[in-house]
Amino acid sequence: MTQKVALVTGAARGIGLATTKLFIDQGWKVAMIDRDGPELSAASKTVSDAASPFEYDVSDPAQVDQMVEAVLSALGRLDAVVNNAGVADFLPVEDTSFATWRRIMETNLDGVFLVSQATIPALKETKGAIVNIGSISGLRASTLRVAYGTSKAAVIHMTKQQAAELGEYGIRANCVCPGPVKTKLAMAVHSPEIISAYLDAMPLGRYGTENEISEVIHFLCSDKASFVTGQIVAADGGFETTGVGLPALRRE
Ligand SMILES: NC(=O)c1ccc[n+]([C@@H]2O[C@H](COP(=O)([O-])OP(=O)(O)OC[C@H]3O[C@@H](n4cnc5c(N)ncnc54)[C@H](O)[C@@H]3O)[C@@H](O)[C@H]2O)c1
Question: Where does the record place the Ketoreductase domain (predicted)?
Fold first, then answer.
């Protein structure tokens, strides 16, 4: 049987690394993409040689073209693309400089657009799947996320655009929106106050794990989801479900 190949961006750590490991456990090969060379190289040594590291920046159109060429020449095919690379910065609207806005958009939004577009020819061949990583912050507005939240809301909509257009090639596109997971990205922006407010507002009352997110990503890339496209799935401990009143209505 032909071994399937997934391209995972932001694979050097966090959710991307957990996704790499899960796909490999499930018998896939993985092209691990990251712009952090040393971290990527160290991470790739912790997984089997079914994973191949590729150091590229997904926000740079020229690098994305080179990346797709390199991955295809090394691994021969692409069955799934997981657009996971992301950056975060939490700042008030008034203090968000244009440079910060662009820094967030160029990875979180431009990167998803560029990588998806460049991999369409390969995904057509396999009737493959795209999974974009959004965020709970793209589903609901909250303070300090004018750039991050807007980038993720745009990724959610881009997923629907991709599903609408690429369905005729048999390519599916879905979006996973994680709630809080204790990765390097989250810990850089989640203050103790934010953590305690989150825990209070989430029905499951805890952070998720990288693996809990990667299970949803893997399902959406697998044949088990062969009739699922254009969907936005929150893996968030129920965060998106609740509005006002959860802490006040708890029994204790
Ligand atoms: N951790 C959370 O609580 C949380 C919640 C919601 C959504 N997310 C989303 O999940 C995804 C993964 O986040 P994480 O928490 O694992 O983050 P992380 O910071 O642990 O890992 C992100 C990886 O992406 C890489 N990266 C960043 N920009 C890149 C670029 N332009 N090109 C190539 N690689 C790049 C980084 O080097 C890093 O290795 C992100 O899209 C993030 O927005 C995370």
Answer: 4-184
Give the model's pLDDT for residue 248: 77
Residue with structure tokens 């479900």? 241
Nearest CA to ligand 1 atom 40: 86
Q: What pLDDT does residue 178 have?
A: 98
Q: Residue 147's domain is classified under what CATH number?
A: 3.40.50.720
| CB 237 less than 6 A from any atom of ligand 1 | no
Provide the domain limits for residue 18. 5-249
CA of 38 relative to ligand 1 center, distance in Å: 16
CA dist 40 and 30 (Å) reads 13
Q: Which residues of the chain have pLDDT under 50?
A: none
Instruction: Look at the chain and report how many structural domains it folds into.
Output: 1
pTM: 0.97
CA of 103 to the centre of ligand 1 (A): 13
- 148 CA: nearest ligand 1 atom: 43
Closest listed residue to residue 218, CA positions, set 125, 117, 80: 80
Under the phi-then-psi rule, with left for phi > 0, alpha for psi from -120 to 50, and beta for the rest, what region is 27? left
Residues 6+ apart with CB under 8 A from 23: 6, 8, 30, 80, 218, 221
- What is the per-residue pLDDT for 246? 78
